[in-house]
């Protein structure tokens, strides 16, 4: 029974994500005159049809492609995505000054964010240091 509930929760979660995708990217309940007053039921049916179409696409992709092992994904992240994000950061850093009209305000905002991050890291390190240690006998 536990496995059935877990399995049902997985499918419901996927369908809720498909409903959100239909609302955010496919126009939600609008389409084919469904947004007009008096056609609320038709709007609901349009939303469900769009959600089922997205769900079918998600299930097609999920059942067709092989699973990606976590060690392969981590290697891809460290070897490709992290250097790519650092290059992106450098490009934005050097292109921001000539193209951002109010660069001083943006620079102050970034400095405040960096200061907040530094203080958060110091506080977090102090908090972790105060946690009780496990005693090994």
Automatic annotation (TrEMBL):
Keywords assigned by UniProt, alphabetized: Membrane, NAD, Transmembrane, Transmembrane helix
Transmembrane in keyword set: yes
Any one Pfam family match given in the protein's UniProt record, by short name: NADHdh
GO (cellular component) term, any one: plasma membrane
TM region positions: 7-29, 41-61, 73-96, 108-129
Keyword Lyase listed: no
Annotated compartments: Cell membrane; Membrane
Alphabetical list of InterPro entries matching this protein: NADH_UbQ_OxRdtase_su1/FPO
Topological type in the membrane: Multi-pass membrane protein
Gene Ontology BP terms: aerobic respiration
Predominant subcellular localization, coarse grouping: membrane
Top-level taxon of origin: Bacteria
One of the record's GO molecular function terms: NADH dehydrogenase activity
Family: Belongs to the complex I subunit 1 family.
PANTHER family on file: NADH DEHYDROGENASE SUBUNIT 1, NADH-UBIQUINONE OXIDOREDUCTASE CHAIN 1
Protein name, as recorded: NADH-quinone oxidoreductase subunit H
